[in-house]
């Protein structure tokens, strides 16, 4: 029976992860802590109200250390001395740059949200998670951050997003290496190109498909996968297809 915390759970993938996790048997999932910056969107309110107390809202400004410390205290109090088992760093930001790399905008914010804030949230929860048995941290990444795949996505005008996600993958590895002997499992996971506000209407997969496949990765990979960058697996998408020849084969992503 594991507890989960998801950043950026007010919409899109984060909200769907919270929803699907809350429907798992109690023997698998005890609490889902769904974080948002301030207000609680109606969709998350409805999920909380219908979760029989299993989904709990936690205010969290991921770029504010004081807010992170308050969130850690709130979660620790709710768990009554038990550890948070799984941290899912899902919150992220994407900027488009349509007029060339020299005019790239949003690089500072991309690093602050997609890399530095992930580090801050992770480091903030470490002392709590060290008391537990599962000790799993999932960083939501993307194949757009893979240097090996960069020729495939050369025409996608989101350089700040690509650069920051490549850095996130290295951050994942650094944590994985240092905390390996303490039993932690750090994974970078690409959830696929999803039909969300971020992904747009032309994306490959529904948010429900992406969330289900991401949860499968979380459940099916333990400490032996520590430090890996993993693709989701979606039946029928094992080979390249769709507008961008994406594929979701469940294997490790070269990066």
Characterization of the model:
With 255 residues, this protein is α/β, with parallel strands linked by helices. It contains six helices and seven strands, in the order βαβαβαβαβαβαβ. The chain has one domain: 3-Layer(aba) Sandwich (Rossmann fold). The chain has a seven-stranded parallel β-sheet, sandwiched between helices. Helix 3 (65-79) runs parallel beside helix 4.
CATH architecture: 3-Layer(aba) Sandwich
Give the strand tally: 7
Strand content: 5-15%
**Main β-sheet, spatial strand arrangement:** 3-2-1-4-5-6-7
* pLDDT averaged over residues: 95
Question: What radius of gyration results from the CA coordinates?
Answer: 17 Å
For the largest beta-sheet, the strand count, sense and barrel status come to: 7 strands, parallel
CATH level-four homologous superfamily name: NAD(P)-binding Rossmann-like Domain
CATH hierarchy, class: Alpha Beta
How far is the N terminus from the C terminus? Answer: 33 Å
Sheet/helix structural class: alpha/beta
How many structurally independent domains? 1
CA-based shape:
globular
**H/E element order:** EHEHEHEHEHEHE
The helix content is 25-40%
